[in-house]
Amino acid sequence: MRAHATTFLLSLAACTATTFAAPDSAWQNVVVGDAATPNVPGVKGAVFVPFEFSNPVIDTTGKMTFRGRIAGPGIDYTNSRMIVSGTPGALSAIARDGAPVPGNNPKGYVFNTIDGFSGVTSSTTISASGGYALPAFINGPGVTEVTGSAFFFISPSGAPSLIAREGDACPGTAGAKMLASLGSAYGQQFNDSGQALLYTPLDGGDTDLTNDAALVLVGATGDQLVLRKGAAAPGFADGTTITPSQYGFTLNGTKLACTATLVNEASINSTNDDAALTNIGAAGGALRIFAREGAAIPGTGGLTFAAGEGTPYLAQHAIEADGTILFTASLGGAATAVDNAAVMTERNGAYAILLRKGDSVPGVTDSTNATFAGKRFQGVNVTAFARNRNGLLAYQGILMNADGSAILYPGVATYIGARRADGTVVTICRESDPVPGSPGWQFSSLNGYTGLCVGDNGVVVFNADIHSGDTMGSTTMAWDAVNGLRVLARTGDTNFTGTPCNMMFLIGSTGNNGNGGHTGLSANGWLALTVYDTDAGIQTLARIRLDATAPCPADLNHSGAVDASDLAILLGAWGGTGGDVNADGATNASDLAVMLGAWGACP
Asked: How far apart are the C-alpha atoms of 218 and 211, rounded to whole Å?
């Protein structure tokens, strides 16, 4: 096994077009919108309207959830949106415009805006445990413009809870009201217990212009004020206050992190006002600043957090189960112009640099191809870097010249890379590389929004534009260390719509599935994809199970042996999915038995 893996990595570093036998399952269409096929669960004669599906999300059982618009007898703008969940041939409605809200709470209310339409939103998310988070607009007795949205949670058992309602009292204040438009899922994260972390404007009570916004953790059993605008900044005794950012926050269980701006006319300016905070490792559930412009970075030989865009910038799923926080930062102090940015982690005051501007890149900087030779790592696309629960970081990388200058067109400057928990960096593919199994086709720029995501089983998935001469296309790609790089789908495929598709979309890592994982790719490899034939008027939501099975699946850290390090990973993920050795969707005694039976060197 180890010899095969070494051969694979060397061939990958050389960026050959070698392909490997992929054990992935076949694509399955979960639902098709073609304006002609009656296929709406529970609504006789109704059809799903094409190009009206939201981004599909998927859990570890392969269950997909999405919002669609329907048409047919008795359907109008008051009842045409619905949220549906299930598997191929077994779909069921979860919520629908015009239908009562879960648990009839508030009593007499239905899903709809105050104007009578579009109540259920496109931002439905799922938990790894099988629950649904439903931000929605609601309409009923006494509704007003500031009480017309709510956040519901439906547990895996089907029990509904009203988590928060616009106009609720904000905890920790003297009568202030929360005015977040909850139906728009405007800046929200949630966990497997059904708690939601949200940003909200405030009004009434003790609110004035200095404290009219807050970050709040809300739930069926109680609410908690996390950070209010105007609060004293942690660690400051000079009157410095802090303002939470509207979007820059993340949640994993009860662990949270957020970005914020410091305010003090006497001592704070644009070079030292950006900061990131967390409750991890803070006394009494308070917050502590773990990154701030101008502050020293302990243990890094004189580096500081420099002023600049993306200092700090939290990853899509920034918090790992052990409290490690993943982010990017600009660097100052001992840094120079060619090494002044990094992808970093912080855990309880300890910092580690995973990737740094100026680094060499395997398969790029050592390439004999003059196009790549001498290039260096510049940074990652901050909307496309994510790490799984086993420490595998996947990212869209951007290259620069050795002197730090940008690579000008028509040079090649982008690639997809991965960094393993042991620090090994792998180049998955580069701009201009041949597309595996597709003679004559090459990757176009790999920067931009590609839906990049990474499963706990080690599979990295991303979309990529490709070209053959002047002919353009796109692909959905998968990579893992066992099976290599392969095409999962590409424009022109007919298995999705019955006609040649011309567009595909991955939600990737942008959603939140409850405790820090991805919504478009489950921890154990279920992938959701949206496929279009815009010419024929057909849209399909499809799924596939991706496998990274090695001869030694209990080797969770890919070290070549099953040992105490793997056992620690499994025990740390107990009850979740991060140590799911037997791919049944859970980490439990069955996985422990498999691991103990495989103890020792991998075959």
From this structure: 19
Q: How far, CA to CA in Å, does 201 sit from each of 170, 306, 399?
A: 10, 30, 40
**Cα 205–chain centre separation:** 36
Q: What is the pTM of this model?
A: 0.85
Neighbours of 593 (CB within 10 A): 12
Distance between CA atoms of 228 and 234, rounded to whole angstroms? 12
Across 421-441, b (16+ Cβ under 10 Å) vs e yields: beeebbbbbbbbbbbbebeeb
Answer yes or no: are the C-beta atoms of 479 and 488 closer than 8 Å. Answer: no
The token pair at 319 is 């918090």
Number of H helices, E strands in the chain: 3, 40
As a whole number of angstroms, the distance between CA 251 and CA 254 comes to 7
Where b means 16+ CB within 10 Å and e means fewer, 330-343 reads bbbbebeebbbbbb
Whether residue 23 has a cis bond before it, omega within 30° of 0 = no
Question: In this predicted model, which residue has the larger pLDDT, 602 or 327?
Answer: 327
The per-residue pLDDT for range 388-412, each reduced to its tens digit, is 888 999 999 999 999 999 998 777 8
Task: Please tell me the distance from the alpha carbon of residue 307 to that of residue 304, in angstroms, as a whole number.
Answer: 9
User: φ, ψ for residue 139 (rounded to 5)?
Assistant: -145, 135
Distance, first Cα to last Cα, the chain? 6
Our CA angle for 226, 229, 230, nearest 5°, is: 115
Residues across the chain: 603
Residues 519 and 527: beta-carbon distance below 8 Å: no
| Token pair belonging to 175 | 């009568």
Residue 172: exposed, middle, or buried by beta-carbon count in 10 A (0-12, 13-18, 19+)? middle
Question: Quick check: 460 and 454 in contact, CB under 8 A?
Answer: yes
Task: For the beta carbon of residue 266, count every other beta carbon within 10 angstroms.
Answer: 7
- Is the separation of the CB atoms in 451 and 440 below 8 Å? no
For the chain, list the domains and their CATH numbers.
Answer: 1-34+362-549 (no CATH), 230-357 (no CATH), 550-603 (1.10.1330.10)
SS3 content of the chain, % helix, strand, coil (to 5): 5, 40, 55
Residue with tokens 């970075």: 297
Give helix 589-597 / helix 564-572 axis angle, nearest 10°: 170
Ranges of beta strands (E only) in 373-497 are 376-387, 393-400, 414-419, 425-430, 442-443, 453-454, 460-468, 471-480, 484-490
> Does the structure show a pLDDT above 80 at 557?
no
Distances (CA, A) of 194 to 55, 103, 220, 223: 21, 15, 8, 12
What is the per-residue pLDDT across 297-342, written as a single tens digit (0 to 9) for each? Answer: 999 999 999 987 667 899 888 998 889 999 999 999 999 999 999 9
Residue 367, token pair as written in the block:
């390439």
Checking if the pLDDT of 22 tops 50, the result is: no
| Separation of alpha carbons 579 and 159, rounded Å | 28
Which residues, in sequence order, are bridge partners of residue 406? 400
